[in-house]
Amino acid sequence: MSHEAVISVLIFVAVMTVIITEKVHRAVCAVGGAVLLLILGILDIPEGVGYIDANTIGLLVGMMLFVGVAKNSGMFEYLAVKSAKIAKGDPWKMMILFMIITAVFSALLDNVTTVLLVGPMMLAICKEMDLDPVPYIMSAIMASNIGGTGTLIGDPPNIMIGSAAKLTFGDFIMNDGVIIVIVMIVTIIFYKFVYGRNLSATPEAMESVMHMNEKEMIKDPVLLKKVVVMIVLIVAGFALHGVLGLESSMIALAGATIMLIIGKQDVEKVVMDVEWPTIIFFTALFIVVGGMEHTGVIDIMADGIMAFTHGKPVMTMMIILWVSAILSSTLDNIPFVATMIPLIQAMGADGMDIMPLWWALSLGACLGGNGTLIGASANVVLTGISAKNGHPITYIQFLKVGFPTMILTLIVCTVYMLIRYA
């Protein structure tokens, strides 16, 4: 490798190392790495900007703005109370319904936003019924990562993969979505053995839930109707964006713009609530990975994998699936996927059919996030909410449930991929 290639690798490793330590905010780490590449002349500004995936950034900003308006309607609070009443206060049935709701909204919005909105309501209902909220928090985390795997917009890695590979919303539904339904069913059955036997509530507690009024949870009925209509239109837009010839980011930004106009909320507050550190992190990370792509490091890595697997598509697919999951459980899956995308593209340049590899990367990176407490942003966010409410979840406590869940779901995905793509 050239000295520039070595420097780009060292900068990437340094950024990843500091991110893992969590001593410095990951956005600051990524920006620092990007600035170093520019200062040292590895990239100039136009080259660096060229590696930023504007479609991914636009999609994230659009969905964050939309959710910033939608959350003020009280939709999630209504659904949480309604689900508890449908389950008649039965703790196990409540867990199933909470998992399904979390998975569905994680697929339609994104998993971090979903757990931010669902988490506090689950805690409130558990407090009302004197239930241990930890099983519900854990099951919601797993459901959010599983549900987010099934669509183009459900999890940041999918947004990145979809943009790089020019995959549509429908492509994700037909490939990831099919197996995710099965994975979700298997996970619910697994949790029956993990938690189901220990979930119980007194008749008085179950009765107290039945007296809760879900309609009181709706903060703005007019806004709620607008949100429901817009969700339907946005999902339809994502499903048809390939036919319409529009980037997915255009659909998200258009939906957000309309929602900001008709929602009649405080626009400045909505804009301020966007997770700008996450947006900055993504933007800078694209430049950091672009440094390795620019200096030829990615091509060298691709050639190494091809030599190891002898270009056998099935072996390469299985390695990407499992390695993606294991590494994503211990590292942040976003930088990992950002590194793997140009790697897979380089394999395609060598003549390999890389379409199955995209699905292997998507399933591995997203489901791998369930392995450990730091495997995905949703894990950190919801366990943080739980800790603030007096129910901390330790790394080991999470590992005992999360890692077996990850392995089980990967086994299901392995069988699926061998049957469908081998």
Based on the model shown, name its key terms.
422 residues, mainly alpha, 21 helices
Number of strands: 0
Distance between the termini: 34 Å
Helical residues, percent: over 70%
CA radius of gyration:
22 Å
Shape: globular
Q: What's the total helix number?
A: 21
| Largest sheet: number of strands, sense, barrel closure | none
Protein structure class: mainly alpha
Overall pLDDT level: 86
User: H/E series, N to C?
Assistant: HHHHHHHHHHHHHHHHHHHHH
| Low-pLDDT residue intervals, each spanning 5 or more residues | none
Tell me the fraction of residues in β-strands, as a range.
under 5%
Q: How are the SSEs ordered, and which strands pair?
A:
Layout: H1 3-21, H2 26-39, H3 45-50, H4 54-70, H5 75-86, H6 91-108, H7 111-129, H8 134-149, H9 156-165, H10 169-194, H11 203-210, H12 221-244, H13 248-263, H14 267-273, H15 276-294, H16 297-309, H17 313-330, H18 333-349, H19 355-368, H20 377-388, H21 395-421
